[in-house]
Design a protein that fits this description.
CATH architecture of the largest domain: 2-Layer Sandwich
Structural class: alpha+beta
Order of helices and strands: HHHEEHEHEHEHEHHHH
Oligomer: single chain
CATH class of the largest domain: Alpha Beta
Distance between the termini: 59 Å
CATH topology of the largest domain: Beta Polymerase, domain 2
Mean pLDDT: 92
Helix content: 40-55%
CATH superfamily of the largest domain: Beta Polymerase, domain 2
Largest sheet: 4 strands, mixed
Number of strands: 6
Number of helices: 11
Shape: globular
Radius of gyration: 20 Å
Strand content: 5-15%
Length: about 300
């Protein structure tokens, strides 16, 4: 019985490791055995258990120090180089982001929580990347939040015209620097329509920098997220910004969300139009948005 139970446990760990590697590949990156063990689906496992799972799984391998699927071996070197450059390239952008968040929450009192997401939070950030932000906002303020983030983001980016760009961060006036990746209204969080492992992973790999209480409320209202990643309950938030003096809420009545939606949608369509000659950029945008549904903005015809 003891041997059978041990075999069942090791097989379960192996399955969790494979699922985690597959999830990471969908997001476009890979991790070292130690780091993979820390964020493994279902809870942390040791580096030794990860290496055992790789050895027992014909579809997995360790390449360039990263655990990858055999089909992704060619991607390992690129991912490793991005990860190695992350500390130096990310450091100045973390400072920029914290200053931006302080200004954002001061100007927009309807914002309950801000987290850094994307490559700046998870690793592999390059100077040509933009900074992704996840927000929780008051009900009736999703589109207002989108417009405010982008308006302040353009003003902020005008001071950083020398920033390197790629097909996603190139803009006519200034580089795309601060971006609203995911905007949730409070009622959408209680509960979330999506409580799958991909949504749980999005929350796990983002770093809260404002409104930690709102994140705690979200987790309390969605216990299934902790079943996927119990690590969410222990996540640290070392870069929380202090609550600044905030603007009056009366400046942002909920009826403004309708006009803000029209304005935001027009801006979104314009940016998509500017990428019309770059199909790879359009495909990347479509893929990222597909991972956020049903919470994406402007999905209508």
């Amino acid at each position: 019985m003891a041997v059978g139970r041990l075999n069942a446990e090791t097989a379960a760990v192996s399955g969790r490791v494979r699922r985690t590697v597959a999830l990471l590949r969908r997001r476009g990156y890979a991790l070292t055995p130690r780091r993979l063990g820390e964020i493994c689906i279902g809870g942390a496992v040791s580096e030794a258990e990860v290496r055992w799972a790789v050895a027992a799984s014909p579809g997995l391998a360790v390449a360039d120090g990263l655990v990858v699927e055999i089909e992704a071996l060619a991607e390992a070197d690129r991912i490793r180089r991005r990860a190695e450059g992350h500390p130096d390239q990310a450091a100045p952008y973390l400072d920029l982001t914290l200053r931006f968040v302080r200004g954002l929450v001061a100007a927009a009192p309807f914002i309950r929580s801000v987290s850094i997401a994307g490559s700046l939070a998870s690793g592999g950030f390059r100077q040509s990347d933009d900074v992704d932000l996840n927000l929780i906002v008051d009900d009736g303020h999703r589109h207002i939040a989108y417009v405010v983030v982008n308006f302040l983001g353009v003003l902020h980016a005008l001071r950083h015209r020398g920033k390197p760009v790629d097909d996603l961060t190139r803009r006519p006036l200034a580089p795309r620097l601060m971006t609203a990746n995911l905007i949730l209204e409070r009622s959408q969080c209680h509960p979330l329509r999506r409580q799958d492992e991909d949504m749980a992973f999005e929350l796990l790999m983002s770093e809260p920098v404002y409104g930690l209480d709102a994140i705690g409320e979200l987790l309390d209202a969605n216990p299934a997220l902790l079943e996927h990643f119990p690590q969410l309950a222990e996540r640290a938030a070392p870069r929380l910004v202090a609550t600044p003096r905030r603007a009056f809420r009366a400046l942002y009545p909920a009826w403004l969300d309708g006009p803000a939606r029209l304005l935001g949608q027009a801006a979104w369509r314009y940016m998509q139009w500017t990428r019309r000659a770059r199909p790879e950029a359009l495909a990347r945008v479509a893929h990222v948005r597909s991972t956020m549904r049903p919470y994406t903005l402007f999905d209508g015809p």
